[in-house]
């Protein structure tokens, strides 16, 4: 069943009204009719079962029932993604949102080729829309936040210290794997650092270690930047959730 997010200011006396892109999608893509049911989410983990009552002025929906959304993982993963080339970031956001990440932060690293500069605002806006579309498609109970700005690596490391734990896949790490990390992890929030195409510089790994971030290996093969984040997220949520 199709799912849409709404702002609580659009909810009054048992009714919700949708406008804009959602209205257009419901009317022209789904070709919905009065009497059909849709699932709406308030973005705070509550789902509303609704029936379309009118398609005249926007999409008017009658609330039939509400219940907590059961699709959100208990483990909250923040993905700190080194800026990749081309449109790889869009793929990373789409798939990691589908998998269940809580938040995605773009990170400027020493070996990152991409520099957003003046394009940063537009890129972040587009990435947030991709996250919203992926959240709708996968039935999430919230729209994961795409960080409000691109962080420098040192600032991302400082931010991650507030989480219950953090890991950084590194091709030169040979001993500690995800299994070992998961076995000893007792918290609810995890930071995952993924490098760009060129990987992390040794100085960045050293800084991460100094701040309690655990270098791990993802196996004998070196994964692409767009594969590493998805793989790590999927394994963590499978093991912990």
Contiguous runs where pLDDT drops below 50 for at least 5 residues = none
Mean of pLDDT: 93
Whole-angstrom Rg: 20 Å
**What global shape is seen?**
elongated
Structural domains: how many: 2
Q: Helical percent range?
A: 25-40%
Q: Distance between the terminal alpha carbons, to the nearest Å?
A: 24 Å
Q: Write down the CATH topology of the largest domain.
A: Alpha/beta knot
Helix/strand/pairing class, anyone?
A: alpha/beta
CATH class annotation of the largest domain? Alpha Beta
CATH superfamily of the largest domain: SPOUT methyltransferase, trefoil knot domain
Strand content: 25-35%
So, CATH architecture of the largest domain? 3-Layer(aba) Sandwich
Summarize the structure in words.
With 241 residues, the chain is of the alpha/beta class. It folds into 2 domains: 3-68, Ribosomal Protein L25, Chain P; 76-240, SPOUT methyltransferase, trefoil knot domain (Alpha/beta knot). It contains 7 helices and 13 strands. The strands form 2 sheets. Strands 7, 8, 9, 10, 11, 12 and 13 form a 7-stranded parallel sheet that branches. The protein has a 6-stranded mixed sheet with strand order 1-4-5-6-3-2. It starts with a strand and ends with a helix. The mean pLDDT is 93. It catalyses: uridine(1498) in 16S rRNA + S-adenosyl-L-methionine = N(3)-methyluridine(1498) in 16S rRNA + S-adenosyl-L-homocysteine + H(+). Keywords: Cytoplasm, Methyltransferase, rRNA processing, S-adenosyl-L-methionine, Transferase.
């Amino acid at each position: 069943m199709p799912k849409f997010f709404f702002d609580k200011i659009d909810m009054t006396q048992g009714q919700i009204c949708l406008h804009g892109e959602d209205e257009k999608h419901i009317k022209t893509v789904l070709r919905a009719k009065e009497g059909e049911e849709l699932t709406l989410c308030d973005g705070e983990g509550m789902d509303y079962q609704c029936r379309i009552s009118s398609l005249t002025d926007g999409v008017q929906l009658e609330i039939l029932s509400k219940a907590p959304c059961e699709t959100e993982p208990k483990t909250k993963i923040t993905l700190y993604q080194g800026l990749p080339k081309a449109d790889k970031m869009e793929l990373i956001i789409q798939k990691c949102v589908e998998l269940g990440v809580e938040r995605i932060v773009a990170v400027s690293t020493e070996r990152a080729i991409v520099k957003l500069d003046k394009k940063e605002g537009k890129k972040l806006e587009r990435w947030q829309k991709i996250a919203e579309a992926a959240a709708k498609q996968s039935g999430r109970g919230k729209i994961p936040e795409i960080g409000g700005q691109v962080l420098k690596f040192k600032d991302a490391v400082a931010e991650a210290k507030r989480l219950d734990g953090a890991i950084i896949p590194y091709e030169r790490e040979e001993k500690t794997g995800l299994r070992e990390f998961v076995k000893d992890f007792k918290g609810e929030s995890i930071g995952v650092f993924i490098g760009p195409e060129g990987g992390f510089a040794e100085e960045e790994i050293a800084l991460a270690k100094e701040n309690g971030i655990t270098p791990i290996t993802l196996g004998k093969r070196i994964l692409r930047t767009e594969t590493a984040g998805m793989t790590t997220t999927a394994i963590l949520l499978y093991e912990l959730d």
